[in-house]
Amino acid sequence: MEGLGKKILFFIGWKQPQEGWIKLNCDGAHKSSINLSGCGGLLRDNNGNCLSSFARKIGSCDALQAEMWGMYIGMNLARRQGITHLQVESDSKMLVDMVTGNCNVNENIPTLIKCIRSLKNMNWHVQFNHKWREGNRSVDWLANFDLTLSSFDLQVLGSLPRELQSLIFYDVFGACMFWSVRVGF
């Protein structure tokens, strides 16, 4: 059909950080049916090895606040573990834009954004990137998993649940999802 443009396929999946860097994938979730939110995250090296994972049930807040909590907790955990080069990925473009200053938040900068920026400005190297949800499946699972926990305490997981192990395996070995987008006129 003329005038409809052409389709381009985008392959979306987890990509390892460059050598010497650690990647934090973080996410937040809100379930309006139970009025609960949670967050989760994974710290992985350039070989895809999971160095640390966490999940936390937060309580009642919106999805963006849950995303903020996931980023803040993950960065704080990385900092306490002595990581010096951190690549942070979130599937919330708005959050990444707020943290990097690419989004006008007027004078009302949320406290968690201030905390994340403070962490970023410490003596270490931090990069922020947006990642489509399809490339962030492992932490999406964690952010929803914590809603099943009885405690509101931070859960740093010593052993990974089987479902999460499978998702990480698929990430490391390059499993991708694809989007088909029509461009042009």
TrEMBL record:
InterPro entries: RNase_H-like, RNase_H-like_dom_plant, RNaseH-like_sf, RNaseH_domain, RNaseH_sf. SUPFAM superfamilies: Ribonuclease H-like. Coiled coil: none annotated. GO terms for molecular function: nucleic acid binding; RNA-DNA hybrid ribonuclease activity. Residues 25-145 form the RNase H type-1 domain. This is RNase H type-1 domain-containing protein. It comes from Trifolium subterraneum (Subterranean clover).
